[in-house]
UniProtKB/TrEMBL annotation:
Name listed for the protein in its UniProt record: Aminotransferase class I/classII large domain-containing protein
One MF term in the entry's GO annotations: transaminase activity
NCBIfam families with a match to the protein in the record: DAPAT_plant
Keywords (A to Z) from UniProt: Aminotransferase, Pyridoxal phosphate, Transferase
Organism of provenance: Papaver somniferum (Opium poppy)
Residue ranges the record marks as coiled coil: none
Record-level GO BP terms: systemic acquired resistance, salicylic acid mediated signaling pathway
Protein family per UniProt: Belongs to the class-I pyridoxal-phosphate-dependent aminotransferase family. LL-diaminopimelate aminotransferase subfamily.
Residue span(s) of domain Aminotransferase class I/classII large: 93-364
Signal sequence residues: none
Amino acid sequence: MSLTQLPASISSSSSAFLGQQSTNSRTSKFSVSVTRNLICKCVVAASPHTEKAAYTTKVSRNANMAKLEAGYLFPEINRRKLAHLQKYPDALVISLGIGDTTEPIPEVITSAMAERSRALSTLEGYSGYGAEQGEKKLRAAIASTYYGDLGIEDSDIFVSDGAKCDISRLQLLFGANVSIAVQDPSYPAYVDSGVILGQTGQFDKDVEKYGNIEYMRCNPENGFFPDLSSTPKTDVIFFCSPNNPTGAAATREQLTQLVKFAKKNGSIIVYDSAYGMYIADDSPRSIYEIPGAKEVAIETSSFSKYAGFTGVRLGWTVVPKELLFSDGFSVAKDFNRIVCTCFNGASNISQAGGLACLSPEGLKARSFLCYLNTML
């Protein structure tokens, strides 16, 4: 056909004779106008702006991080709570998020921290790095106050910046090739740290659980204690009493069953007693009240709930010398290596507060604080 028979306009996408105009990812658009005297005028439309691709390294992402579903539970709950309050500012919200405290820290404790802080500005009172395991006086005070007649020594105690941090350090100690069991429901740090370390399979959205984790159902029907007779063997058992979030405290008989179960299977119990101070009946506050527990259990605890230290950050973990790996090596020695590698010790100011907390005046004030936090 002749040129005068061309359509009024031709686009680059529908005209073969215009050919490939560019080797890059942006496509230019043309229009060809034809006048009666056969003069052609080509107009090129401006290409839409495209952002330059971000630079990427050649380091692969940890595949275990990709297994995690959404964000960590408590920040996500807080995000949703704030969004709801922004939309409904007068709403009365009952938060089931992080277990924060509500009452001020007793003055006998804050005074000790203030005094230690002021001392750091003097030559006589200054101190730098301390022992990674914690100050000797505080370790001794924890041992005598909470484990006085249970055979736990101050050398078994590792002072830390909180039980949550120690849970991740313990997971690092165990490594990727262990199987774990958790109460269902339970504190999310046990599962999430296991996922990150590579202990689990993928997340199954149909049942909302990760593969390769034994979820021990705890509900009103079984008294919030798992049926151990039908629970498969795992290497590590995470057990929290009083439980977060149900608040159920295991009885002496139930914990005796748990210790016997662990001993039978050669498992290690990680016993979280962060809420132990709130126990008002004769239920054990420590797993070491159960005979044989020192051979199968690690206990982690915290000043967060005891003394309102959620922002101050101070806790401890007990690893008895009697606890051994399958090859006979001391679990405490390996945990000490983890601590020395990953941690420079708890703040000396926080430790001063912890020591004051365990003084006679501090124990009295803290007991009242626990009562208030229970009531509110």
